[in-house]
C-alpha cells in the first residue's frame, strides 16, 4: 500500500485526482494538528415546503383555515396562557358583530356563525394547549358562482390565484373570501380578553369614512368614545348625524347594484409602554402588516399619517412633560402612541382604508380563463360597503399584534429584574383592573 503523502509532501497546485487512494480525507488526516480539519460526504439537505401565509404571530400564534363554501372555517390558537376563563360566549359576541346578514347594508347571506371550541379548554379554563375553534358554513349557494368558473371577476383574486396555484376554489372566492376572517375574530376576542385582564387594554374601532362622507377629526374623542356609541347604529359610526349620512350613501349604491369603500379608525387605550421590537418588528410595522392582510384593505396610516407631511418639525413634535403621577407623557399625540417603533403609553390610533367591494351587480368587461375578452354579470351575495363589518376585524388584528408583542416583551425584558428607575412591569398601571384570584 502506498504511503499517504503528508502536507509537506504535496506540491502546491497538485490536482486532487493525483492523490493516492484515500484522497483528500487521507491527506487531511495526516496533516499537522494545527491545520487538520474534517471533511466528509455532505448529506443532501431535506427539502421542506411549508405552507405560507396562514399563521399569524410568533408567541400568540393563530392559524386560520377554511373557505367560503367549504364545510366550515376556524382557527387553531397556540401559545395562549393557561388558566384564562374562556367559553364560546366570549368569542360569539365579536363573531356576531362580524357575521353577514345583520342589516340591510351588509350581505344578505344568512349565517349564524356559531362557534364551537373543540380543544384547549377544560371546565371553562384554557389549559395552555392549542385551542381549536370551528364555525360551520350553513348557507352556501354554489350555483351563484357558475360564471366565475369561466371568467375572472375584475379586481378580485380569481386571476392571481390561478396565476399562483394553477387551480382555485371558485365558489364564494374560496380562501380569498372574508369568511376566512372568522377564525381571526374568534382568536382576537380571546386576545382582547387577555389584554384587558393583564393591562387594562381597550381596543375600539369605528367607521370614520364612507365614500365621500367623512367624519370630522374633532367629532370623536378617542379617550372617551365607547362601544355603546359605536354599536348604536348599523354603520358603526359613533356620531349619529354622520352615521345616517353614511347609511344613506350605502343605501344609494346598494339599490343600484354597486359598491363603495371607506375608512375604519381604530384606537387602543392603556397599551403598556415598551411593546414593539426595532428594527423590523416596529409596532407600527406589525400593525400595518396585520391590517393590510385583511380582505379589501388598501391603505394604512398611524398617528398624523400622511397629513403629518404638511407640518414642520416644531409643529409635529410631541413635547414631553411630567404628569401628576410622576409619569413621562406627551402633550400631543401626533405619533399615534408609538415612537421609535415602541409603544410609549399614549393612546394608539390608526386608520385603515378599504376599497369598494369588487363583486358588484353590474355588467363588466373581463377575460375568460380561455383568455378571451368577454362581458361578465356576477351573481352572489355581497356587501355594498365592507367597512361596517370590517370594524371587528380591525379590532381583532390590533389585538393579535398587541397580544403577541406583550408576550414577546415579557419574555425578553421581564425575565430578569427591571431597571425601575426607567421601566415599569407589565400590568402595574394604576388603571389596570384587578385580576381574578386564580390569575393573580
Describe what you observe in this structure.
- With 440 residues, the protein is an alpha+beta fold.
- The chain has one domain (55-414): Chorismate synthase, AroC fold.
- The chain is built from 9 helices and 18 strands.
- It has a 5-stranded antiparallel sheet, covered by helices on one side.
- A hairpin with a 2-residue loop joins strand 8 (202-210) and strand 9.
- Helix 2 (88-98) crosses helix 4 (181-199).
- The N and C termini lie far apart (76 Å).
Determine and state the CATH class. Answer: Alpha Beta
How many domains comprise the coordinates? Answer: 1
Mean pLDDT: 87
Task: Supply the CATH architecture.
Answer: 4-Layer Sandwich
Structural class: alpha+beta
Tell me what portion of residues adopts beta-strand conformation: 15-25%
For the sheet with most strands, the description reads: 5 strands, antiparallel
Radius of gyration computed on alpha carbons: 28 Å
The gross shape turns out to be globular
* Element string (H = helix, E = strand): HEEEHEEEEHHEEHHEHEHEEEEEEEH
Strand numbers in spatial order across the main sheet = 1-2-3-7-4
Which short descriptors sum up this protein?
440 residues, Chorismate synthase, AroC fold, five-stranded antiparallel beta sheet, 9 helices, 18 strands, globular, disordered C terminus, Chorismate_synth, Chorismate synthase, FMN binding, EC 4.2.3.5, chorismate synthase activity
SSE map:
Blueprint: H1 23-29, E1 55-56, E2 61-66, E3 72-78, H2 88-98, E4 116-119, E5 121-122, E6 125-126, E7 131-136, H3 158-165, H4 181-199, E8 202-210, E9 213-214, H5 227-230, H6 240-255, E10 262-269, H7 283-292, E11 297-302, H8 313-316, E12 320-322, E13 328-330, E14 338-339, E15 342-343, E16 348-354, E17 363-367, E18 373-377, H9 387-413
Antiparallel strand pairs: 1-2, 2-3, 3-7, 4-7, 5-6, 8-9, 8-10, 10-16, 11-16, 12-13, 14-15, 17-18
Amino acid at each position: 500500500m502506498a504511503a499517504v503523502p503528508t502536507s509537506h509532501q504535496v506540491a502546491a497546485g497538485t490536482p486532487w485526482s493525483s492523490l493516492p487512494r484515500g484522497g483528500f480525507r487521507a491527506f487531511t488526516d495526516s496533516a499537522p494538528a494545527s491545520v487538520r480539519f474534517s471533511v466528509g460526504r455532505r448529506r443532501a439537505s431535506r427539502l421542506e415546503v411549508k405552507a405560507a401565509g396562514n399563521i399569524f404571530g410568533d408567541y400568540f400564534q393563530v392559524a386560520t383555515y377554511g373557505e367560503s363554501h367549504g364545510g366550515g372555517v376556524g382557527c387553531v390558537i397556540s401559545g395562549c396562557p393557561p388558566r384564562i376563563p374562556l367559553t364560546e360566549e366570549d368569542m360569539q359576541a365579536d363573531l356576531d358583530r362580524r357575521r353577514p346578514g345583520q342589516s340591510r347594508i351588509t350581505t344578505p347571506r344568512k349565517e349564524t356563525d356559531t362557534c364551537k371550541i373543540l380543544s384547549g379548554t377544560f371546565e371553562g379554563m384554557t389549559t395552555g394547549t392549542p385551542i381549536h375553534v370551528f364555525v360551520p358554513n350553513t348557507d352556501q349557494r354554489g350555483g351563484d358562482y357558475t360564471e366565475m368558473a369561466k371568467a375572472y371577476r375584475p379586481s378580485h383574486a380569481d386571476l392571481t390565484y390561478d396565476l399562483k396555484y394553477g387551480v382555485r376554489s371558485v365558489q364564494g372566492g374560496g380562501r380569498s373570501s372574508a369568511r376566512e376572517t372568522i377564525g381571526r375574530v374568534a382568536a382576537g376576542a380571546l386576545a382582547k380578553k387577555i389584554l384587558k385582564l393583564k393591562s387594562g387594554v381597550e381596543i375600539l374601532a369605528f367607521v370614520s369614512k364612507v365614500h365621500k362622507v367623512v367624519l370630522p377629526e374633532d367629532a370623536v374623542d378617542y379617550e372617551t368614545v365607547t362601544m355603546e356609541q359605536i354599536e348604536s347604529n348599523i354603520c358603526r359610526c359613533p356620531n349619529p348625524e354622520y352615521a345616517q349620512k353614511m347609511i344613506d350613501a350605502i343605501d344609494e349604491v346598494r339599490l343600484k347594484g354597486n359598491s363603495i369603500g371607506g375608512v375604519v379608525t381604530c384606537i387602543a387605550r392603556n397599551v403598556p409602554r415598551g411593546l414593539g421590537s426595532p428594527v423590523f418588528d416596529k409596532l407600527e410595522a406589525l400593525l400595518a402588516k396585520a391590517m393590510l392582510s385583511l380582505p379589501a384593505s388598501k391603505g394604512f396610516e398611524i398617528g398624523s399619517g400622511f397629513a403629518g407631511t404638511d407640518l414642520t418639525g416644531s409643529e409635529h413634535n410631541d413635547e414631553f412633560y411630567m404628569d401628576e403621577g410622576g409619569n413621562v407623557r406627551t402633550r400631543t399625540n401626533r405619533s399615534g402612541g408609538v415612537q421609535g417603533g415602541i409603544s410609549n403609553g399614549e393612546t394608539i390610533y390608526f386608520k385603515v382604508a378599504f376599497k369598494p367591494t369588487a363583486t358588484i351587480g353590474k355588467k363588466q368587461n373581463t377575460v375568460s380563463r380561455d383568455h378571451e375578452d368577454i362581458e361578465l354579470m356576477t351573481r352572489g351575495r355581497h356587501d355594498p360597503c365592507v367597512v361596517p363589518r370590517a370594524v371587528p376585524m380591525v379590532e381583532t388584528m390590533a389585538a393579535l399584534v398587541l397580544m403577541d408583542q406583550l408576550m414577546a416583551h415579557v419574555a425578553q425584558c421581564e425575565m430578569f429584574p427591571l431597571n425601575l428607575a426607567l421601566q415599569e412591569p407589565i400590568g402595574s398601571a394604576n388603571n389596570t383592573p384587578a385580576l381574578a384570584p386564580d390569575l393573580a
